[in-house]
């Protein structure tokens, strides 16, 4: 029987209770290519399938969405597989708090689509996917026993999905959690260095941002980073090394800020003698974006480019590592374009996080060409070339750079893997045929 309550509005824990009352531990929604709609594994969940089918905002013909409630600690976990033409769906697993199941579902749909675009634009032979886990407030998420149990169960979920999704680290997940996932599956990247993983991606990410900046400067025919002034928001794992690279490139001045006094003081000490100004800010202080400078580089949090900040930006280029910088991609992308500010799309320039761990299974070499080619100027999918292509098409068409980048990425994401073809879809078909949710 279909439930009377609105399942989408339930809190994630109330939704878990509903599932348990209905003896549902695993369930899925997959896109049925014959029926041309999303179908549900359980008729009790049909209203969710109907919601996905009618959604125009975040649903984008996702191939499959797979969920489970953990055996211990009642945690809702999932794998969102958006598109797998280029290869298995790849993207990190987010461990976060959600107000409702709808919020949870939307995050998974949106983030997995974003990974399809990031991976395709990077020329990686990976599809796009994302994992999502909701905090269960009844348990302490920092308790090592709770964490190791739920992440091991997440690894079991990966194993059950037979490789249509390969997970990685994301917000709320750390390197120890990745080791726990790895103990239960081979379908993960971003495992710790001492287990054969690729280690911290922040340095390559900072280098990727530098490559994006250089491409934007070249596009504007303004020479190089030499003599430029750059304002950096956030002096963390990416922002800190980025500032040092900017001085290596001959920047005339760097202005930076952070909410952490410690980060500010530490870097000031390290960069004594350089033309470096840094100050401590409150969380809602975006004055760094208003600095007189050539480039603004958001390297802290998302949604900082919006109708409250964009009118005050004086720089001609915005290029940084932070994810989802545009609060409203359509509105804010258009506004930046209208104002003649070059916005280097975040998912283009911050790709090195995923690039760094994408090919762990192929081993490591010094100055790895599989990584370096993204940072050089020659390769057609390098940050440099991709950036120039996006900026040129944006100028030609009058559309925002973010819109153009998504268009190019979307086209690339539909190319089939040269050896394995659209295998992720075949895996999903097999899972459905085998009654995956009964396992
Ligand atoms: P981090 O947590 O090490 O650094 C972020 C820094 O920003 C911290 O020092 C924090 O104190 C500061 N901060 C937070 N809010 C601020 C605010 N309102 N104003 C000024 N400073 C603020 O994170 P990170 O690894 O350096 O990543 C930075 C951004 O880049 C994040 O959005 C992350 O998702 C994104 N990103 C990182 C990588 C990577 O390889 N680390 C890859 C892709 C994308």
Task: Describe this protein with a few key phrases.
8-stranded mixed sheet, Rossmann fold, 439 residues, binds nicotinamide-adenine-dinucleotide, alpha/beta, 2 domains, 15% strand, globular
What's the quick description here?
The protein is built from 15 helices and 14 strands. It has helices at residues 12-21, 46-54, 101-121, 144-160, 175-182, 202-219, 239-248, 261-270, 329-338, 346-349, 352-358, 369-375, 383-397, 401-413, 423-433, and strands spanning 26-32, 37-40, 64-69, 76-83, 89-90, 93-96, 127-134, 165-166, 229-233, 253-258, 276-280, 295-298, 317-318, 342-343.
Task: Lay out the secondary structure.
Blueprint (H helix, E strand, L loop, with lengths): L11 H10 L4 E7 L4 E4 L5 H9 L9 E6 L6 E8 L5 E2 L2 E4 L4 H21 L5 E8 L9 H17 L4 E2 L8 H8 L19 H18 L9 E5 L5 H10 L4 E6 L2 H10 L5 E5 L14 E4 L18 E2 L10 H10 L3 E2 L2 H4 L2 H7 L10 H7 L7 H15 L3 H13 L9 H11 L6
Helix pairs in contact: 3-14, 4-5, 6-7, 6-13, 13-14
Bound molecules: nicotinamide-adenine-dinucleotide (NAD).
The site of nicotinamide-adenine-dinucleotide (NAD) has 25 residues, from helix 6 and strand 10.
